[in-house]
């Protein structure tokens, strides 16, 4: 089976790595939509149109499911995506539910891109699960984009993380939700800055479990095949070209399985929202 995974850049590779570790027999096709990045600076309507183009790309590649490994794309466009494809579509949402249950001091920080931080979907999740917890919604307009430039941007990323963590420490936050798939790529920086007294929650395990559930529902007859011992392939494609490909591949834990990376022109696909 072949799974399409997309993000604006490298962030969704945290999800790819988790899927690969749990289900190594799956073929994984990863799209870094770097030409359209950063998503956080786009309007919801722009993101919706772009996601439909990406769905058409995945359809042409004959994937069996689509993982939207991007918080911003999920909150802005997953409903529109599900309206135009019969494939299982798995999104990624901030893991606020386990964070609220885990927090001992009842003070949780949610770190996201500005668009996700201001989204109605995040607000609904928080109100559904917060109970008596205090919530500190934080955002960074630059961090995700800077992580895409790692390791060139290492000094900038470290400085941004230190500043954000200093604010959390001052506010006595004891649980942090990383609500952008880019942020777990530098989780160690948050751990070092916040210390052992702060739990850090990220969504990769939850997304992987949901993918398994959706595949079981959609394709019960091929369950033994995608749980087999044979390793599937990993293919990385970018909408911007190959110049940043070494950085993308550097985040892939099972790089030995990579096919030849390539570029793809997502703009060639025609978006038809609501078709």
TrEMBL record:
This is Glutamate racemase. It catalyses: L-glutamate = D-glutamate. The lineage of its organism: Bacteria, Pseudomonadati, Pseudomonadota, Gammaproteobacteria, Oceanospirillales. NCBIfam families: glut_race (TIGR00067). It holds the Pfam family Asp_Glu_race. One of its GO terms (molecular function) is glutamate racemase activity. The keyword Transmembrane does not apply. PROSITE patterns: ASP_GLU_RACEMASE_1, ASP_GLU_RACEMASE_2. The keyword Transit peptide does not apply. Provides the (R)-glutamate required for cell wall biosynthesis. Keywords: Cell shape, Cell wall biogenesis/degradation, Isomerase, Peptidoglycan synthesis. Gene3D superfamilies: 3.40.50.1860. Belongs to the aspartate/glutamate racemases family. Pathway: Cell wall biogenesis; peptidoglycan biosynthesis. HAMAP family: Glu_racemase. The active site is at residues 70, 180.
